[in-house]
């Protein structure tokens, strides 16, 4: 019974939480966190508050006072690897809790990686998302024996402005690092805090808090980017390339991701807020705007005309944006071949997920993860038939003609000599023919 659940999908969170954020600049309310265990709510011990395992689902009650009245928000957080039963239970348990409070609380569903700002803020910058679940979760953090067998773990600390910081476990390798953030590396005997040259104070403070929470009996070493020891590199499989440059430029703005699609006929662009790697859809085209450069990410299943319209849009967007940017290059990327300068903007990027995007011939290819291909206006629209020639055979393949060939004018992409052999006239003479006659001749040679 009770009031109808006020369930809010992740997309609508911005509206709900904007109001909450404005009213709750004070985050000194009380946080109670439960984990879903055997489909019941089990409160997590104080030392584990703010820690979330991606194999579990949780219910969090935030109680605060406004105008001398108690107010409540119930968040239910669902890990990406949590079972369907647990996710469903988190929603039901939230509803029960809501009933217990006579339907007063606001209910908010939180999907892992899309945490709203206020949710991050109530944990005071100490929110950590870890791999694993249930069984592995309750190792007491001071119980070294059990902990030491865990080997090496690395965590990515990223802030989105004051006290909106979260930390997510990432791959333990050099390419996961980037100069804009902090990372916490936990080895069996030692804890390292790696501070990127462009990391802000919030990130440095959160990294110190997270290290303190997870350290057990390990000692902590703070490393500034560039001062890494041999031990640090060997713990993550050796020194390697990672994204550096752009975080150190003077004008750093928050990156923005847009989903570009042509479902409605024309091209539409929709901004994706609080984006993660899961937002990259393999049959569409996405645009990542980093202010100093723009990336057009092409899913393997995206249509070629869709890629073309997207590149046109991106070039126009980069050139005519009223936000004061100077020369802003546009790069085209194929899904699965993302360079560090792109992946660094996605918290805890997963290479295995990216590898699954690659289709067909590209699979075994060693296309390097370079910065992508810089594009200019000559790279969009149909190729100019005067300067781009193809063989008759290439042009005859139905629906598979070479990329960016104008399907209505395939014959113009033939060499003059071949054209004359096939049609018995020059291109200029052919152009003077009546349309029906042109079409009949093209059909005969499978060029229509």
TrEMBL record:
The keyword Manganese does not apply. Keywords: Actin capping, Actin-binding, Repeat. Residues 384-448 form the HP domain. GO terms for biological process: actin filament capping; cytoskeleton organization. GO terms for molecular function: actin filament binding. PROSITE patterns: HP. It comes from the Eukaryota. Pfam families: Gelsolin, VHP. Belongs to the villin/gelsolin family. This is HP domain-containing protein. The lineage of its organism: Eukaryota, Sar, Rhizaria, Cercozoa, Chlorarachniophyceae.
């Amino acid at each position: 019974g009770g009031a109808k659940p006020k369930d809010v999908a992740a997309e609508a969170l911005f509206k709900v939480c904007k109001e909450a954020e404005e009213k709750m600049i004070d985050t000194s309310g009380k946080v109670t966190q439960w984990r879903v265990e055997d489909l019941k709510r089990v409160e997590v011990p104080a030392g584990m508050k703010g820690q979330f395992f991606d194999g579990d689902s949780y219910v969090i009650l935030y109680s605060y006072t406004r105008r001398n009245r108690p107010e409540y928000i119930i968040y239910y957080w669902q890990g990406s690897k949590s079972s369907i039963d647990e996710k469903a239970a988190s929603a039901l348990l939230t509803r029960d809790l809501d009933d217990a409070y006579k339907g007063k609380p606001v209910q908010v569903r939180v999907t892992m990686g899309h945490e709203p700002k206020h949710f991050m803020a109530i944990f005071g910058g100490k929110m950590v998302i870890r791999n694993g679940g249930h069984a592995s979760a309750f190792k007491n953090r001071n119980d070294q024996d059990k902990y030491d067998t865990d080997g090496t773990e690395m965590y990515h600390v990223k802030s989105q402005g004051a006290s909106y910081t979260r930390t997510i476990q990432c791959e333990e390798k050099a390419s996961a690092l980037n100069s804009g953030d902090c990372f916490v590396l936990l080895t069996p005997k030692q804890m390292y805090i790696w501070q990127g040259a462009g990391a802000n104070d919030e990130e440095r403070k959160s990294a110190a808090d997270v290290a303190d929470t997870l350290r057990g009996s390990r000692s902590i070493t703070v490393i500034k980017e560039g001062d890494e020891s041999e031990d640090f590199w060997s713990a993550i499989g050796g020194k390697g390339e990672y994204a550096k440059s752009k975080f150190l430029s003077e004008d750093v703005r928050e990156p923005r991701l847009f989903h570009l699609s042509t479902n409605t006929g024309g091209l539409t662009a929709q901004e994706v807020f609080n984006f993660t790697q899961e937002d990259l859809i393999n049959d569409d085209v996405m645009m990542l705007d980093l202010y100093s450069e723009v990336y057009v990410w092409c899913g393997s299943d995206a249509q070629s005309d869709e890629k073309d319209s997207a590149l046109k849009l991106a070039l126009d967007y980069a050139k005519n944006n009223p936000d004061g940017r100077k020369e802003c290059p546009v790069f085209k990327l194929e899904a699965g071949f993302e360079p560090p300068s792109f992946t660094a903007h996605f918290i805890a990027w997963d290479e295995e997920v990216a590898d699954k995007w690659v289709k067909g011939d590209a699979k075994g290819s060693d296309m390097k993860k370079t910065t992508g291909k810089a594009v200019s206006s000559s790279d969009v629209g149909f190729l100019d038939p005067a300067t781009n020639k193809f063989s008759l055979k290439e042009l005859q393949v139905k629906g598979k003609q070479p990329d960016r060939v104008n399907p209505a004018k395939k014959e113009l992409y033939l060499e003059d000599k071949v054209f004359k052999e096939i049609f018995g006239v020059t291109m200029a003479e052919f152009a003077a023919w009546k349309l029906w006659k042109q079409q009949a001749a093209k059909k005969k040679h499978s060029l229509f």
